[in-house]
Automatic annotation (TrEMBL), chain A:
This is Putative ABC transport system ATP-binding protein. Belongs to the ABC transporter superfamily. Macrolide exporter (TC 3.A.1.122) family. CDD domains: ABC_MJ0796_LolCDE_FtsE. The lineage of its organism: Bacteria, Pseudomonadati, Pseudomonadota, Gammaproteobacteria, Alteromonadales. Pfam families: ABC_tran. Keywords: ATP-binding, Nucleotide-binding, Transport. GO terms for cellular component: transmembrane transporter complex. Residues 2-236 form the ABC transporter domain. InterPro entries: AAA+_ATPase (IPR003593), ABC_transporter-like_ATP-bd (IPR003439), ABC_transporter-like_CS (IPR017871), MacB-like_ATP-bd (IPR017911), P-loop_NTPase (IPR027417). GO terms for molecular function: ATP binding; ATP hydrolysis activity; transmembrane transporter activity.
TrEMBL record, chain B:
This is Putative ABC transport system permease protein. The chain crosses the membrane at residues 21-40, 256-276, 303-330, 350-373, 393-410, 416-441, 469-487, 713-736, 757-780, 803-827. One of its GO terms (cellular component) is plasma membrane. It is found in: Cell membrane. PANTHER family: INNER MEMBRANE PROTEIN, MEMBRANE COMPONENT OF PREDICTED ABC SUPERFAMILY METABOLITE UPTAKE TRANSPORTER. It is a multi-pass membrane protein. Residues 259-377, 717-830 form the ABC3 transporter permease C-terminal domain. Pfam families: FtsX, MacB_PCD. The lineage of its organism: Bacteria, Pseudomonadati, Pseudomonadota, Gammaproteobacteria, Alteromonadales. It comes from the Bacteria.
Length: 238, 839
């Protein structure tokens, strides 16, 4: 579903250019769930932004559902995101001036899917928020906002879901509810899940964990066995 | 889908108050422009109507020959109203006495504008009449009752006809305004003129045709008439040609309205620019979200362009309603004082207002929108990422171009537009330099322990670019308000100075040398103060440097004198004095106070009025010959004077050294002021001096004063409107900048900073910005005022030092207070709410 080959990211600062991501290669299979973990500043979010096509790689190749992201321009990537990708963010990123249901409808409308309102109602029902459909984000609690965000992410039945610290802004009780909801929907829709998290419990719920450190992918851990990254990463990795 | 989404966003944002500021700015611009221009258009209409009364029509044709009936028929066929008058000077006889009269024969329809006023008894209170003399009737001036010793019903003879005295004539609209035009007026019917047989060859008769109707129709009529006119015989006059004090005051007021409206447009534009920038920044997140969710650039562009369209349309609609209401309120409030007709509806202001709203909304939101479209989707992960596009050059280019375009379209006056725009550009340039300077100073001041002042300086320094934009918009707003305010003060002061309280409203002429002391005493005993006595003697102007002057008879101080560009009166009123009169200024040569006669027949110095000198091509050193009585007086031009004709005092074209006139016995002219409520005393005041002629200019002065008062009042209202608009703009600016401060306040609050520290740091920041903006505005104001007053308003420019102190103080106060109010609102929220607002 996702394949990266030696992707790197270099940014230009006032003190010269800085490589914030060393060459990274790995693959994610369809339906698999992956957690990218690591300390702050280790490059987790950068990696996520590249995988999701929100940013461009400086070198290397990325294929998202066989589409070569590295050759596509912003417009083409947007199209791809609209068709195949869902997002969940730590700060929810709901459009403040749209109601819960309108936020959920948004991806379906952008993708031109039929009957977006009906779809949105159904999925809001599924996340248990049908009674809050016409509330604005600032009238909802953090947990509720994230449920709206999840509903929005799943409305288009995306092939891949990217989640950036989905429980980072929530308390323990809400975190658990959100996690459960996320994995439940993930299973239901058969989505490939890539999430960035600090939360070990959440990470261990994923099939595999990619550990980042100072811009390098240092190990890949599987639920059943921990194996050294170098052994499985194949050529191109250090 | 796009329209749907855009409409939904628009609806929710409007409901949640997100659009308030930008909507408000558009409403403000449309309402201000509409109300100002509608009001000024209506007021101008009223003033033109008013001043048209001075020529009794919208246009007038004066001729030395009878006016062709064909010309009048043509005018009538075009839908223009016409009327006729024939005037001449002639002798009128009572049973015992006779007098020279200014005889006016008026036809049907006269006057087309203004009113004839009559009284029940000589010197009685005038009242308007709709009638005009019937054939066989004569209406005569109060003075004629004395001079001819007649009563109402008596018979008066003019030429070969006899007339019955039917009314006391007080006033006709176009009687002229001349101290020397001493002949009392008599009014008869047009058809009676021929019977008098006084209009034969050799008599000086003026034929006038009056025209009233739509300006455009009259203009096209004039286009038709013009080729048939002979410059030697005909003269076309329109209200706008009015060179009198009133005409100039009105022209100046019109320019002021134009200026005020232009400034209102600029203010509104600034408000929209500020609001659009804020709007754009608030939508960075939604755009990033849309992009992340796969929206194409085209979709985002369409959603936001539609949004701007919705806002613009709504703003324009509400703005027009508000503008009409404001204008109506002002007109209603002024109804008692200003004669503004509400019946007339003008479409041009509506068109201009809509155009202004559209240009402002479109051009000023262009740059913020371009920035908005460039927000990268990555912002959803990296919250600090803003728009990737940034070009101050483009921003200033588009905004500046839009403002200039608006000014030019609106004023159709390149000069005013260029002056205001130039001052603005200079101001911006200077402000950028000052901001850089401030940042350097702030770097020093802002270090050290963290008090409220240090925090304020630190903020100013950190947000250098934002602050420079803010400083520029504050300064421009304050400058524009200053220009409107100071311009109004100067203009009204100059108007008032033309006709101060106690301006002489009566003139006395034909006072003999012997009567002088007795008259002075008698008036003093009655508590009336007499101004200076000026000797007057009639002389014929014979030659310039031995070249004979062939001119026709006109007299100075007669507004009609200017018509005869060919020359000056053969008969001139000469005066002599070695004291330069008040409001006279020597512009060439030197005043003859210290001249001493040399030799047997010296060349006496004469001072010539500038206009006459130009017209007759008289230069310093020329020899002018006058024939006074049977004597020849030869003079040499030693000075040329500039005379302020707008003052109500006797003025003279020629002032000769007293030594030249010793031999002649002159009469004297003087003037005095008498309050309106003492008008009845005139007869008793004048009784001992039957041979002295009284000339009453009270009505004329009141008329001029009324118009000036009305115009001043209107100017004041416009000032208030602009001030309100300006204050709202300032408020919008502070509000917009409050958003940017929110985050910082939240952090400071979270870190436990005391409310007072935060509040004072914000207030201090605004105080600093307000002071600097005020100071810069005072400087720019001086520059624009100098340019405007000297180049556009035909006024004497002066420096306004007081505003150099007032502007920074008021700037600091207003901006500081607004800052405090905005800050208070934020500080009223608890930290949690503040943090939530940031998300």
């Amino acid at each position: 579903m996702i394949e990266t080959k030696n992707i790197t990211k270099i940014v230009t600062t006032s003190e010269g250019s800085l490589q914030i991501l060393q060459p990274i290669s790995f693959q994610v299979k369809p339906g698999e769930s992956i957690a990218i973990v690591g300390a702050s500043g280790s490059g987790k979010s950068t990696l996520l932004s590249l995988l999701a096509g929100l940013d461009e790689v400086s070198a290397g190749e990325i294929f998202l559902d066989d589409a070569p992201l590295h050759t596509m321009d912003e417009e083409q990537r947007a199209q791809l995101r609209g068709a195949k990708v869902g997002f969940i963010f730590q700060s929810f990123m709901l459009v403040q001036s749209l109601t819960a249901i309108e936020n959920v409808m948004l991806p379906a409308e952008i993708a031109g899917l039929p009957d977006p309102k009906k779809r949105a109602q159904d999925i809001l029902e599924q996340v248990g928020l049908s009674h809050r459909a016409h509330h604005y984000p600032n009238q909802l609690s953090g947990g509720e906002q994230q449920r709206v965000a999840i509903a929005r992410a799943f409305i288009g039945q995306p092939k891949i879901l990217f989640a950036d610290e989905p429980t980072g802004n929530l308390d323990a009780a809400n975190s658990e509810k959100i996690e459960d909801l996320l994995f439940e929907l993930n299973r239901e829709v058969g989505t490939t899940l890539v999430l960035v998290t600090h939360d070990n419990t959440l990470a261990t719920k994923c099939d595999r964990q990619l550990r980042m450190q100072a811009g390098e992918l240092i190990e890949i851990t599987s639920q059943s066995n921990v194996k050294p990254f170098l052994a499985s990463a194949g050529e191109g990795s250090r | 889908m796009v329209t749907n989404l855009a409409w939904r966003l628009f609806k929710h944002e409007a409901r949640r108050g997100e659009l308030t500021i930008i909507l408000f700015a558009i409403i403000l611009s449309v309402a201000a422009v509409l109300s100002l221009s509608l009001f000024s258009e209506r007021l101008q209409g009223a003033l033109v109507e008013r001043s048209s009364q001075f020529i009794a029509a919208d246009s007038q044709l004066r001729a030395a020959d009878p006016i062709s009936t064909e010309w009048l028929t043509e005018a009538n066929s075009m839908g223009i109203e016409t009327a006729e008058q024939i005037s001449t000077r002639s002798m009128a006889f009572g049973e015992q006495q006779m007098s020279l009269v200014d005889l006016r024969a008026v036809g049907q329809g006269y006057p087309l504008k203004g009113d004839i006023k009559v009284a029940n008894e000589p010197f009685g209170t005038p009242s308007i009449t709709q009638q005009r003399p019937s054939p066989g009737e004569i209406w005569i001036d109060s003075r004629l009752f004395q001079l001819l010793d007649v009563k109402l019903g008596s018979t008066v003879y003019v030429g070969d006809s006899e007339f019955t005295v039917a009314r006391v004539l007080s006033e006709i609209p176009d009687q002229g305004f001349s101290v020397f035009n001493t002949d009392p007026m008599a009014l008869i019917a047009l058809e009676d003129m021929e019977k008098t047989n006084i209009t034969g060859p050799g008599s000086r008769v003026v034929y006038k045709a009056y025209f009233a109707g739509d300006t455009s129709v009259i203009d096209s009529y004039y286009d038709w008439l013009r080729p048939q006119l002979d410059d030697e015989l005909h003269r076309w006059q329109t209200v706008g040609d009015d060179e009198s004090a009133i005409g100039r005051s009105i022209a100046r007021a019109e320019r002021y309205f134009l200026l005020a409206s232009l400034l209102a447009i600029v203010l509104a534009a600034v408000a929209i620019a500020v609001a659009a920038q804020r709007y754009s920044q608030r939508h960075f997140d939604p755009v990033a979200i849309f992009k992340t969710l796969g929206a194409s650039k085209q979709l985002i562009r369409r959603v936001y362009i539609l949004q701007v369209m919705f806002i613009t349309v709504l703003g324009i609609v509400i703005g027009i309603i508000a503008g009409v209401i404001i204008q109506q309120l002002v007109v209603t409030a002024l109804a008692g004082q200003v004669d503004v007709s509400l019946d007339v509806w003008h479409w041009r202001p509506v068109f201009i207002a809509v155009l202004t709203g559209t240009i402002c909304a479109v051009l000023f939101s262009l740059y913020p929108l371009l920035r908005l479209f460039s927000v990268p989707p990555l912002r959803v992960l990296r919250r600090d990422m803003g728009a990737s596009m940034s070009s101050k050059g483009l921003q200033f280019g588009v905004s500046g171009g839009a403002i200039f375009l608006l000014m030019w379209v609106y004023s159709r006056n390149l000069e005013i537009s260029a002056i205001l725009f130039g001052s603005g550009v200079l101001l911006v340039g200077a402000l950028v330099l000052v901001t850089l300077g401030l940042i350097a100073v702030g770097r020093k001041l802002g270090s050290g322990s963290m008090g409220s002042w240090q925090l304020a300086w630190a903020r100013i320094r950190r947000r250098a670019m934002d602050n420079s934009v803010q400083l520029i918009s504050f300064s421009i707003t304050i400058m524009l308000l200053l220009v409107v305010l100071v311009m109004r003060n100067d203009m009204v002061a100059q108007w008032r100075a033309q006709l101060p309280e106690n301006t002489p409203n009566y003139f006395l002429i034909n006072i003999t040398e012997q009567q002088k002391p007795a008259l002075e005493q008698h008036f003093a005993d009655n508590g009336v103060n007499i101004e200076s006595f000026y000797p007057v003697i009639r002389g014929r102007f014979v030659a310039v440097n031995d070249e004979r002057v062939n001119t026709e008879v006109t007299k100075e101080d007669d507004p009609e004198a200017t018509e005869g560009r060919r020359g000056l009166g053969r008969e001139a009123n000469l005066t002599w004095s070695d004291v330069l009169q008040h409001e006279n200024k020597v512009v060439q040569g030197s005043w003859h106070a210290n001249w001493t006669p040399e030799g047997e027949s010296p060349l006496y110095p004469v001072s010539v009025e500038q206009g006459v000198a130009e017209r007759l091509k008289i230069a310093l050193g020329d020899t002018l010959t006058f024939n006074v009585g049977s004597e020849i007086v030869v003079t040499k031009v030693t000075s040329i004077r500039e005379v302020n004709w707008q003052t109500m005092q006797p003025n003279f074209f020629f002032v000769i050294h007293p030594a030249a006139m010793q031999e002649f016995s002159a009469t004297y002219i003087t003037s005095f002021h008498l309050d309106g409520d003492r008008k009845a005393e005139i007869t008793s005041l004048m009784q001992p001096f039957a041979s002295v002629t009284l000339f009453d200019v009270d009505a004329r002065i009141n008329q001029v004063r009324e118009i000036i008062d009305q115009v001043s009042l209107a100017v004041e209202f416009i000032l208030v409107l602009v001030l309100v608009a300006g204050s709202l703009v300032l408020f919008a600016q502070v509000q917009a900048s409050m958003d940017e401060r929110q985050q910082e306040l939240a952090i400071l609050r979270t870190l436990g900073a005391k409310g007072t520290l935060i509040r004072f740091s914000v207030i201090n920041e605004f105080l600093i910005i307000g002071t600097v903006a005020g100071l810069m505005a005072a400087m720019a104001n001086e520059f624009s005022l100098f340019m405007l007053q000297s180049r556009v308003f035909d006024m004497e420019a002066s420096i306004h030092w007081e505003y150099w102190a007032i502007a920074p103080a008021v700037g600091a106060l207003v901006v500081g207070v607004l800052g405090a109010v905005g800050c208070y609102r934020l500080l009223a929220l608890n930290t949690g709410q503040l943090l939530r607002k940031m998300v």
